[in-house]
Write a structure and sequence with these properties.
about 200 residues, mainly beta, Laminin, two-stranded antiparallel ribbon, signal, secreted
Amino acid sequence: ATCGHGCKYGECMGPNKCKCFPGFTGKTCNQDLNECGLKPRPCEHRCMNTHGSYKCYCLNGYMLMPDGTCASSRTCAMVNCQYGCEEVKGQVQCLCPSGGLQLGPNGRTCIDIDECSTGQAVCSHNRRCVNTFGSFYCKCQLGYELKYTSGRYNCVDVNECVTNTHRCNLHAECLNSQGSFQCKCKQGYRGSGFDCA
């Protein structure tokens, strides 16, 4: 599949057809989706848009439920859940607001699932997975940066020799390579390129 403009926060699925990662929109998936403006609203009380996601908040005396609703429950308050809870047959169970979170050993707080190390996250060949609390995103591999060139988003090689981010010795030449660089001692000098004598 070829997308002429590339897909900033998404994957190319067909000719000029981007499939955006959750929380992003637009032809090239370069715009943040304001979930708070969606109908029906994702949160019952208060909603705050974030980059690629959103957060729900409840008014005082209410607990946040996983579906974005706010419930007034004394029993839930007594259990002191981090995000929200449900009562099933008189039993109070804490809940987590995202599929990227799981209930911790104490049964009250939510801990992050690292989608990058569990293999649940799939990033395209020149991007690497970055875990976030409750989710993940794909960013360019080390030695590459996201650039909008010739009308599309791409991960392009960083020329460390030009940007002066190499660590070559004063008496060495910097040679750029895809995603990296090499140092070679100049004529009359010997060493690794990082050290030349």
